[in-house]
Amino acid sequence: MSPHDSLAASGPAVEISALTHAGTERARNEDHCAALIDAQGTALGIVADGVSGQNAAEQASRLAVEAALRSYAEQPWRTAAGKRLYRAAQSANIAVHDLALTVPELRGMATTFTAVAVAGGELAAVHVGDTRLYLVHDGRIRQLTKDHTVAAERHRLGLVRRDKLRTHPQRSTLTRSLGRELIAAVDRITAPVVAGDVVLVCSDGLYNVLEDDEIVPLVTTSAERACRALIDTANARGTPDNLTVAVVRVVRSVEHAARRPSLFELLRRVRGG
Which domain holds residue 40? Predict the structure, then answer.
C-alpha cells in the first residue's frame, strides 16, 4: 500500500487522504488517484479506474488524473470549483481520447473518473463511469452518483432488482467512460456539507465487497485511518478487483485564501497504483 499524504488546511477545515491497492487477486493495479488541499483550502480528491479488458487501462487512469490536475491548476482560482472540475474532466477526456487515436496500441483505452472538491460548506463533483461518490452525514450514507453501467441503467428502468445488481452479468459493462468519445457526457453534482460529514470516492473494487452500511463505521476517524480501514477490511474478505478510496472529512467551514495553487503544488501530490 502507498497512501497519499494526509493533508489538513489551516485550522484545520478539512482532512483528505487517498489510498489505492491492487487487491488480493490481481498482480497489477489499473486504478489511479490523487488527494490534495490547495492554497485556497479546497480539498480535491480524484479516483479513476482504467477499463479492464481494454488496451492500456493503467495508462488511461493515470493520464486522466494527471491531465485533470493540470487543467484544474491552470484555471483562474476564482472560478467556481464545479466549473473547474467539469473543464478538468473534459481536458482529461481529450487527453485520453487523443493519445488513443495517436498510438494504435492504445486504441480503445478508457477509464472511469470521479472528482470532488470540498470547501466552504459545499461539495462539487464530476462523474463518469461506475466509480462512486458517497456522503456520510449523521451516521447515514448516501450515494450521490449514478453508476453508468448496463445493469444500473436497467435497474433505474425497473428491469433489475437492486439486490440483484451485485451479481448481474453486466454490472461492470460501462455505458459511459472517459476516452471513448471526443466530448464526454459528464454528470455534475453539488451538495451541502457540514462539520462531521465524510465524503468518500471509491472504485467498484471496494463497494462490490463492502455494503454501504458497512462503510459508515469505518470512516468515523481521520481521513488517513479511514482509507486504511476501508482497504484493509475489503482485502480481508478477498478482493478480485483493484480498489481505491479518497476520503474527505469536514472539520469546519473554511474561508478561501487569496493565492491560487501552482501546477507543481498539485502534481507533486499525485500517486499511482
Answer: 7-257
